[in-house]
Amino acid sequence: MVTRESGALADTERRAADKAAAERRRIATELHREVLEHTERMVARSGTGDLDDVATEARAALAAMRKLLGSLRGGTEEARHAPQPVAADLVELCRTWRAAGRKVTSHGLPRAAEGLPAAVSLTVYRVVEAALGAGDRGPVRITLRRRRERVHLTVTGVLLAAAGPVAERLRVQVEAGEGELTVDRAGTLRVSLPAGDTPNRAVSQEVTSSPYA
Fold first, then answer.
1. Per-residue pLDDT tens for 142-167?
2. Mapping DSSP to helix (H, G, I), strand (E, B) and coil, where does residue 189 land?
3. 193 to 46, 97, 113, 123, 143: CA distances (angstroms)
4. Residue 86 neighbours by CB under 8 Å, 6+ apart
5. Alpha-carbon span 189 to 167, nearest angstrom
């Protein structure tokens, strides 16, 4: 009886933690979008010469950025020392976006994410996270595959992430990991990163797609 109750309590706590994490991601995404909107308006108004409007938007962008950083830190010692996300966590990230009403399909997850170096795995996650949070509303397709000791990530349907400050930030992040980022005006990101040894031959091919991953 005690064991059953302990298991139920642990399960309840785990579900609560998952919901809290999903809510933090949702808030961070909204704040990230707010930062970008204020930044874009600031750039647009700088061309008109109206310094008062530029200053207003700059202050608003900084305030939103502070909120974003605070939400990402989580405000607790436990949150600050929480493990970094990995590529396999994209399964849950996709579920969160689908639950919010956006059509997100994935191909190759989580199989192609297995055995990636920690830094590469984190970069893959951050690229998809930023692409999904760039502000687009339409359907997104995410493909992850391994080939010849490299991991290839393609994200389509993210027009706002394929240009401007988001694209530049992602380019810097990917190049810091010795990777390559290409974008096109149709809203597609293509990332190639060193992946080390491929765990097995099955992973070297694109894994069968799943709309539920």
1. 999 999 899 999 999 999 999 888 89
2. strand
3. 37, 25, 12, 9, 14
4. 113, 116, 118, 121, 122, 125
5. 9
